[in-house]
């Protein structure tokens, strides 16, 4: 933040938005992006999101004004919101055995925790030896590897509940979007009160809760669709 403040010279409010808008957007869109992946395909969403994340990281690195930086951070949050639900949904689709699935989710969670711990160290090293934009550019090689490996190895999957939708069932996507926006707004307000360190921890908790909620909602909605299909079959 001191390096960005020196180069871009943002106001106090703009500096808060630079730090908070990513968490606000990613928390608000996480569940909605999971629902979008159910429709268009989890692999497609993951690859598009990873590509966008890499490209928008370049925009963040070379931002020249506070307004451009805020916009780039918000767009980065949109791209980031596609990655978590898509990866978890693909894990559920790839590993059908409960023990293998539990192990895969455990590795996924451990990797995320390791990234949280190693990230500040790597960021500090980059800031010590390079300019602040290098913190964003380090995302590029990671996203390139993800896209190349994903294209070759990951299977495509969509929600089986589309059968229910064809019989008149509708998913409450607007409600999810509004709920996610409320969570994001609460998160942004808490950031200003508790500071960035507490906000980072709050974001991690909210992300985990939303992921679990998204999975639970998906199971409940699929069960409801199955009930509707069975009832309509009985009527016929």
Task: Detail the topology: elements first, then pairings.
Blueprint: H1 2-8, H2 12-40, H3 42-61, H4 66-94, H5 98-129, H6 134-137, H7 139-153, H8 162-166, H9 173-235
Helix pairs in contact: 2-3, 2-4, 2-9, 3-4, 3-7, 4-5
Compact description:
With 236 residues, the protein is mainly alpha-helical. It has helices at residues 2-8, 12-40, 42-61, 66-94, 98-129, 134-137, 139-153, 162-166, 173-235.
Distance between the termini: 64 Å
What is the residue-mean pLDDT, rounded to a whole number?
A: 75
Helix and strand pattern: HHHHHHHHH
Roughly what fraction of the amino acids lie in strands? under 5%
Low-pLDDT runs of 5+ residues are 162-217, 227-236
Q: Please state the structural category.
A: mainly alpha
Major beta sheet summary: none
The outline comes out as elongated
């Amino acid at each position: 933040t001191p390096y960005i403040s020196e180069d871009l010279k943002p106001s106090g409010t703009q500096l808060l938005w630079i730090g908070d808008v990513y968490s606000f957007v990613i928390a608000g869109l996480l569940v909605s992006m999971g629902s979008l992946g159910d429709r268009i395909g989890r692999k497609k969403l993951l690859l598009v999101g990873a590509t966008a994340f890499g490209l928008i990281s370049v925009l963040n690195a070379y931002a020249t004004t506070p307004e451009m930086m805020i916009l780039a951070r918000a767009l980065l949050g949109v791209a980031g919101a596609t990655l978590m639900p898509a990866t978890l949904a693909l894990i559920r689709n790839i590993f059908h055995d409960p023990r293998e699935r539990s192990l895969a989710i455990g590795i996924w969670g451990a990797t995320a925790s390791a990234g949280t711990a190693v990230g500040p160290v790597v960021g500090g090293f980059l800031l010590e030896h390079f300019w602040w934009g290098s913190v964003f550019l380090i995302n590029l090689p990671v996203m390139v590897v993800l896209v190349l490996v994903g294209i070759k190895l990951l299977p495509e999957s969509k929600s089986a509940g589309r059968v229910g939708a064809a019989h008149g069932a509708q998913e409450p996507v607007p409600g999810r979007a509004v709920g996610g926006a409320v969570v994001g707004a609460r998160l942004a307000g808490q950031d200003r009160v508790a500071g960035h360190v507490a906000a980072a921890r709050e974001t991690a908790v909210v992300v985990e809760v939303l992921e679990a909620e998204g999975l639970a909602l998906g199971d409940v909605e699929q069960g409801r669709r199955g009930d509707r299909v069975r009832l309509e079959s009985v009527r016929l």
